[in-house]
Amino acid sequence: MAIVRVALDARSYDIVIEQGALDRAGSHLAGYARKGRLVVVTDAHVAAAQLPRLDTSLRAANVAVEPIILPPGEQTKSWRHLESLLDDLLALEIERGDHIVALGGGVIGDLVGFAASILKRGCHFIQVPTTLLAQVDSSVGGKTAINAKAGKNLIGSFYQPGLVLIDPSTLDSLPQRETRAGYAEVLKYGLIDDPDFFAWCEREGERLLAGDPQAREYAIERSVRAKAAIVADDEREMSGRRALLNLGHTFGHALEADTGFSDRLLHGEGVAAGMALAFRYSARLGLCPPADAERVTAHIKAVGLPQDLASAHVRADGAALVAHMLHDKKMAAGTLPFLLARGIGQTFLSKDVALDDVAAFLEEDRATAGA
Ligand SMILES: NC(=O)c1ccc[n+]([C@@H]2O[C@H](COP(=O)([O-])OP(=O)(O)OC[C@H]3O[C@@H](n4cnc5c(N)ncnc54)[C@H](O)[C@@H]3O)[C@@H](O)[C@H]2O)c1
Ligand SMILES: O=C(O)C(=O)C[C@@H](O)[C@H](O)[C@H](O)COP(=O)(O)O
Ligand SMILES: [Zn+2]
């Protein structure tokens, strides 16, 4: 078992990583139950694959689980589902002191975190992430959100959980495509500022994707340690440090928006293509050695993730994709700070990017990839 602390003064909390933790949920979570019950919000896939483990363990500790089961998928991060979730929580007479458990991937974590942050002006919540993406990224750091017509994650809050309980064995039931998408956010930590970790991913990534328990636990712990340190330093993305976690996301969110947030392109797939594009754009600007951009592109392709517009199945032109980027939350005074790289492990926030140049690059990149 490993415990990583997210140090945020009164909002500090632990991330517990333990193989089989769901089967010991009684000992981890019973202390958070009021009147012998815990409300657990999950989606239909996770309810089938993992909820019984949590339920059995909590029942043995005399805690009844009150489940709220939502439809799976990105479309659930919406006003409609937020409203019905809030109504369901109120019907269960949730009090401000109660803890709501988010059992699932990033969709459930982001939605439940946002609901908890506004219900009765703030109830406690606990993250029990069940996808690789949620275990290495979304369950940590307190970004909560739903999507709006105008774009991704545009309505939300910073609201930290009280505990993150990670059981890597929940990934045994995760579809391979979802594991691969989550791997993009693992790679991200190496590309931001940890070139040794990127090299580890090049050597051991296939073992991690194949479900090797040691590789999985190593990658989860190394990722959450990296994220916890960044969040402790810049909780609300004010200093620029936390913005590094957005590597590949300005491109990625625009690609996701182009697909209408459908399952044609998962978040992690958009981020994978977005990181490869960010490295190639950095190389085109003369900032990054072309060999590094090629290495990043090659690894992303080798693990079966999209690395350009064609492999992300995006047909929109550069200008249309840039129009989506105008909704990015980093936009300030009419300019969009962009995550670029001077090399692998050397990501930085640039304020010198012209969006018409980004549009031109996207068209060139599409033509080069097709050539
Ligand atoms: N808040 C943050 O810091 C942050 C960080 C990264 C991503 N995100 C958000 O996270 C979302 C993506 O999260 P995700 O990739 O976890 O997707 P997801 O929550 O949609 O889960 C992916 C799919 O896997 C299923 N699933 C989950 N766990 C399972 C399990 N153990 N066994 C079987 N099936 C399982 C789900 O039902 C779903 O169909 C996006 O909306 C993204 O914006 C947020
Ligand atoms: O935690 C962060 O900070 C991140 O940026 C993590 C990202 O992986 C995540 O997708 C996040 O939701 C994107 O944030 P946004 O502010 O661009 O919506
Ligand atoms: Zn992300």
From TrEMBL:
Biological processes, Gene Ontology terms: amino acid biosynthetic process; aromatic amino acid family biosynthetic process; chorismate biosynthetic process
Residues the record lists as binding Zn(2+): 185, 249, 267
Entry-linked Pfam families: DHQ_synthase, DHQS_C
EC number: 4.2.3.4
Domain 3-dehydroquinate synthase N-terminal: 68-180
Assigned keywords, A-Z: Amino-acid biosynthesis, Aromatic amino acid biosynthesis, Cobalt, Cytoplasm, Lyase, Metal-binding, NAD, Nucleotide-binding, Zinc
Recorded catalytic activity of this chain's protein: 7-phospho-2-dehydro-3-deoxy-D-arabino-heptonate = 3-dehydroquinate + phosphate
Pathway: Metabolic intermediate biosynthesis; chorismate biosynthesis; chorismate from D-erythrose 4-phosphate and phosphoenolpyruvate: step 2/7
Top-level class of the enzyme under EC nomenclature: lyase
InterPro entries attached to this UniProt entry: Dehydroquinate_synthase, DHQ_synth_AroB, DHQ_synth_fam, DHQS/DOIS_N, DHQS_C
Keyword Cytoplasm: yes
HAMAP family the record matches: DHQ_synthase
Family: Belongs to the sugar phosphate cyclases superfamily. Dehydroquinate synthase family.
Name of this chain's protein: 3-dehydroquinate synthase
Lineage summary: Bacteria, Pseudomonadati, Pseudomonadota, Alphaproteobacteria, Sphingomonadales
Gene from which this protein is expressed: aroB
